[in-house]
Design a protein that fits this description.
The chain folds into two domains: 273 residues, 3-Layer(aba) Sandwich (Aldehyde Dehydrogenase, Chain A, domain 1); 185 residues, Aldehyde Dehydrogenase, Chain A, domain 2 (3-Layer(aba) Sandwich), CATH 3.40.309.10. It contains 15 helices and 25 strands. Strands 15-18-19-14-13-21-22 form a seven-stranded mixed beta sheet, sandwiched between helices. A six-stranded mixed beta sheet has the order 10-9-8-11-12-24, sandwiched between helices. It has a three-stranded mixed beta sheet with strand order 1-5-4, with no helix packed on it. Helix 9 packs across helix 10.
């Protein structure tokens, strides 16, 4: 039995909500989990609603009273055990994600490695998440961190293993309990994670409720016992989640879209050009282009433009567009027909408004008749076109020629997003000055997507509120409480 067929066989026929460490029976309607490439029916998933959210929140609320009293060492032990369990199950979970969302095994394997890293990082960070204090006259002031309670979390479909870890790890490390809604296009690996959670965590600490955004997502964000909201997805839905938090005055953290600039200076070492071309290709095509942090706007200096573009075009043409269950680096399919048609519409816009350099066509892959595969697509354009301004979420790169530094900085910042950015240069002064002036939460110099453990990940402008993946994230999931203690009473004065 191959790894792929073994992963298929390991799936349940139907998945209910994961509440109180158990999968709940399904009595209502379901929606299908379908393999993105082949169209194969993988499982049925409960179309949950307000009743399941009520049950999950009640479970999380009951568990919170116990979980918040656990010392950090106990929480850390659970997170480390979960990372170990994911490592043990990684080949199966990786394959499930590839079937579910159409990304290559090589990529979903990286996803689970990052997820494991995330759980282990916050296991360690929990041990050093302390308050602070200072003396006051006749006493001492202590400020301590306390968890919020039940956290409602909503994640997208593009990297489910990473998104699940980004949400669960810091929340439970800080002492909160969780009700997590996975995306309806990518629920399987997250629901399968529930089996591992049930072996490690006390009941109710982590609950997973699948369903549609307008149903289960709306019920979760509006629930009166949810005391913290966290969302990753589009800016449009982020506004809805933010409004739901504002209506109940609960804190909201958001990780939203991006249209990230990747800037190549003319001083790069000629010996490094091929390596830079490769990194630029990876930055734009990783995750089949379905990544909020993708380097989708390449600012390429005029002095090296022609030679670089020849090499970039050749690099893009070398990418295999193939069955995502194949081994090795490749470009798989988009997650769904809806996403495929969206990307096709932007390619059609680009063909009218910009110069197509390479790609631009849908590709047929044997045995993957349902998949929306596209050639790696590169346009030469200007920063004011729609393909340069709007998040496409597909394998499409916009290349913008520059020679004037000030105009380049203006254009790089002249989008509504500010998530990530890249710089390639041998000039340290240029690197630091440009990094300071870019309106982006992450600036990667000479290696795009250099997201090290503990490196803050969050955006400016419409790319979100708050930072994940770092020690500061624990503060995002906690209140700060001040307690003062005096060793002696003040003499009477007010009513004398």
């Amino acid at each position: 039995m191959t790894e792929v067929s073994a992963a298929r066989k390991s799936l349940s026929k139907v998945y209910g909500a994961f509440i109180d460490n158990e999968f709940q029976p399904v009595s209502g309607s379901t929606f299908p989990a379908v393999a993105a490439a082949s169209g194969e029916h993988l499982a049925d998933i409960a179309r949950c609603g307000s009743s399941e959210i009520d049950a999950a929140v009640a479970s999380a609320k009951a568990a919170f009273a116990m979980w918040k009293t656990r010392v950090p060492e106990e929480r850390a032990e659970c997170l480390n055990k979960l990372a170990d369990a994911i490592e043990r199950e990684a080949p199966r979970l990786t394959t499930i994600d590839t079937l579910d969302i159409g990304r290559g095994l090589w990529e979903t394997g990286i996803d689970h490695a990052i997820a494991m890293q995330q759980y282990r990082y916050f296991a360690a960070a929990a041990l050093t998440h302390e308050g602070f204090g200072r003396p006051i006259p006749n006493g001492y002031m202590l400020a301590k961190r306390e968890p919020y309670g039940v956290c409602g979390q909503i994640i997208p479909w593009n990297v489910p293993a990473i998104m699940t870890a980004f949400k669960i790890a810091p929340a439970v490390a800080a002492g909160n309990t969780v009700v997590l809604k996975p995306d309806e296009n990518a629920s399987l690996s997250t629901l399968e994670l529930g089996r591992l959670i049930a072996e490690i965590f006390p009941p109710g600490v982590i609950n997973i409720v699948p369903g549609l955004g307008e149903e289960v997502g709306a019920a979760l964000t509006a629930h009166p016992d949810v005391t913290k909201l966290a969302f990753t997805g589009s800016s449009e839905v982020g506004r809805i989640v933010s409004q739901a938090g504002a209506n109940r005055l609960v804190p909201v953290s958001l990780e939203l879209g991006g249209k990230s600039p990747n800037i190549v200076f003319p001083d790069v070492d000629p010996a490094d050009i091929d390596a830079i071309v490769d990194n630029v290709t990876f930055a734009s095509m990783y995750c089949n282009g379905q990544s909020c942090l993708a380097g989708t706007r390449l600012f390429l200096h005029d002095a090296i433009y022609d030679d670089f573009m020849q090499r970039l075009t050749a690099s893009m043409k070398r990418i295999r567009v193939a069955d995502p269950t194949s081994q090795g680096p490749l470009l798989g399919c988009l997650v769904s027909e809806t996403q495929g048609r969206r990307v096709q519409s932007y390619i059609d816009i680009g063909k009218k408004d910009a110069l197509l350099i390479t790609g631009g066509n849908r590709v047929e892959v044997a045995g993957c008749d349902a998949g929306w595969f596209f050639e790696p697509t590169v346009f030469e354009t200007t920063n004011d076109t729609r393909i340069a301004q709007e998040e496409i979420f597909g394998p499409v790169l916009s290349v913008i020629r520059w020679s004037d530094y000030e105009k380049m900085i203006h254009d790089a910042n002249n989008v509504r997003y500010g998530l990530a950015s890249g710089i390639y240069t041998t000039n340290l002064k240029a690197a630091w000055e440009t990094a300071d002036r870019l309106q982006a939460g992450n600036v990667w110099i000479n290696n795009y997507f250099n997201l090290a453990a503990g490196s803050p990940f969050g955006g400016f402008k419409e790319s979100g509120i708050g930072s994940e993946f770092c020690h500061e994230t624990l503060n995002m999931y906690t209140h700060l409480k001040a307690i003062t203690v005096q060793t002696q009473m003040n003499p009477p004065w007010f009513s004398q």
